[in-house]
Design brief:
The chain is an alpha/beta fold and 167 residues long. 48% of the residues lie in helices and 15% in strands. Strand 3, helix 3 and strand 4 form a beta-alpha-beta unit. The structure holds 5-O-phosphono-beta-D-ribofuranose.
C-alpha cells in the first residue's frame, strides 16, 4: 500500500496524477491532506504510524515552503518520494524544488521533477517491485508500452515527413 499525501487540496490537480498511475498499475493506495504548517500534530501522527499500517512508500507533495516531505522523512522509516509543486504560494517552482531536494545527510527524500507526481507513482511502484515479481512484471510491461507508443510516432513521422506530421 502506498500513501499519497499533500499539503493542501490546492495540490490535488497535480497529486491526482500519482493516484491515476497507481490505479493504472493496480497498486493500492490511500490519498489525503497532511499540512506540515497547518496540522503539525497530524503530520507527526501520520509519519510515526504509517509503517505500522502496512504503508510501504510515502509520496508527499507540497509547494512553496515545502516542508512536508522532509518532515515526514525525518519521522518515518519508510522511503519518502517528494513532489515539488508550483503552487499558489510558490514564486517560480524553484522554491518548492529546493525545499524538498536539499535535505541534510541522513534524511533522504527522493525528489521528482516539478509537478511530476506521475513519476512519483511510477517510482513508488518500482520500489515495491524490487521485492514483488508480479509488480515488477507490470513495470516491465509498462516500459514496453512506453516504447511502443514512441515507435508508433517515429514510424509515422518517418513515413509522412515532418511537415505533414500531426500529433
Ligand atoms: C503548501 O502551501 C501546500 O502544499 C500548497 O502547495 C501551498 C498552498 O496551499 P493553499 O494556500 O492553497 O492551501 O503548504
Amino acid at each position: 500500500m502506498i500513501s499519497i499525501i499533500m499539503g493542501s487540496d490546492s495540490d490535488l490537480p497535480v497529486m491526482r496524477q500519482a493516484a491515476d498511475v497507481l490505479k493504472e498499475l493496480e497498486i493500492p493506495f490511500e490519498l489525503t491532506i497532511v499540512s506540515a504548517h497547518r496540522t503539525p500534530e497530524r503530520l507527526f501522527q501520520f509519519a510515526q504510524s504509517a509503517h505500522t499500517r502496512g504503508i510501504k512508500v510515502i509520496i508527499a507533495g507540497a509547494g512553496g515552503a515545502a516542508h512536508l516531505p522532509g518532515m515526514v522523512a525525518s519521522l518515518s522509516p519508510l522511503p519518502v518520494i517528494g513532489v515539488p509543486i508550483k503552487s499558489s504560494n510558490s514564486i517560480d517552482g524553484w522554491d518548492s524544488v529546493l525545499s524538498i531536494l536539499q535535505m541534510p545527510n541522513g534524511v533522504p527524500v527522493a525528489t521528482v521533477a516539478l509537478n511530476a507526481s506521475k513519476n512519483a507513482g511510477i517510482l513508488a511502484t518500482q520500489i515495491l517491485g524490487a521485492h514483488d515479481n508480479a509488480i515488477q512484471e507490470r513495470m516491465i510491461k509498462y516500459k514496453k508500452e512506453l516504447a511502443a507508443g514512441v515507435a508508433m510516432k517515429y514510424t509515422k513521422l518517418e513515413e509522412v515527413g515532418y511537415e505533414a506530421y500531426k500529433k
